[in-house]
């Protein structure tokens, strides 16, 4: 009888530990998703500032502005909490491609470079670039903590059974 009570208590303790571990892993997984969502917001803000630049370019050269808008419509995708690091990199490349094109176009139109709105938009793009960089660091830090947690014994046993898998890091980008 005594051994049966001990076995039942041990099973109850095991179940409590499993539930607590699951809760901890769910919270960490959600933190990774929230960090990706925040990164998506920052990338979108940078994209928004770039779009204002495209609008300015269009006021100087409708042909180039329309071409840039078309390129953006076909290539840009909004990032969500469930986006992958590769999605972030793709969108950053789209934004950089647009900015490079705008830089080339502004070389042909000196009055565009001198436009106050142009300068303000460039400053905004640079500010959002810094925010994206910070969000990338935060994302990678949270992913590191999550990945470490799911690899630790005995948590890795529960993580494997419950379907928690290693998350990918964002490659270090240029600042």
TrEMBL record:
Membrane topology: Single-pass membrane protein
Signal peptide residues on this chain, from the entry's feature table: none
Keywords: Membrane, Transmembrane, Transmembrane helix
Keyword Transmembrane (UniProt): yes
InterPro entries (alphabetical): LemA-like_dom_sf (IPR023353), MamQ_LemA (IPR007156)
Organism classification: Bacteria, Bacillati, Bacillota, Clostridia, Lachnospirales
Subcellular location, principal: membrane
Protein name, UniProt field: LemA family protein
Organism: Hominiventricola aquisgranensis
């Amino acid at each position: 009888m005594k051994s049966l009570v001990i076995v039942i208590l041990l099973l109850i303790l095991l179940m409590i530990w499993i539930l607590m571990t699951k809760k901890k892993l769910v919270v960490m997984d959600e933190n990774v998703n929230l960090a990706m969502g925040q990164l998506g917001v920052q990338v979108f803000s940078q994209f928004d500032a770039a779009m204002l630049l495209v609008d300015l370019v269009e006021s100087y050269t409708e042909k180039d502005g329309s071409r840039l808008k078309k390129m953006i419509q076909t290539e840009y995708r909004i990032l969500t909490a469930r986006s992958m690091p590769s999605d972030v990199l793709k969108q950053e490349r789209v934004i950089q491609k647009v900015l490079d094109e705008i830089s080339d176009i502004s070389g042909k139109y000196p009055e565009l470079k001198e436009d106050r709105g142009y300068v303000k938009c460039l400053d905004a793009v640079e500010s959002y670039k810094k925010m994206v960089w910070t969000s990338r660091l935060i994302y990678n830090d949270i992913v590191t903590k999550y990945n470490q947690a799911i690899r630790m014994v005995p948590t890795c046993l529960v993580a494997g059974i419950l379907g928690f898998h290693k998350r990918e890091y964002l490659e270090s980008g240029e600042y």
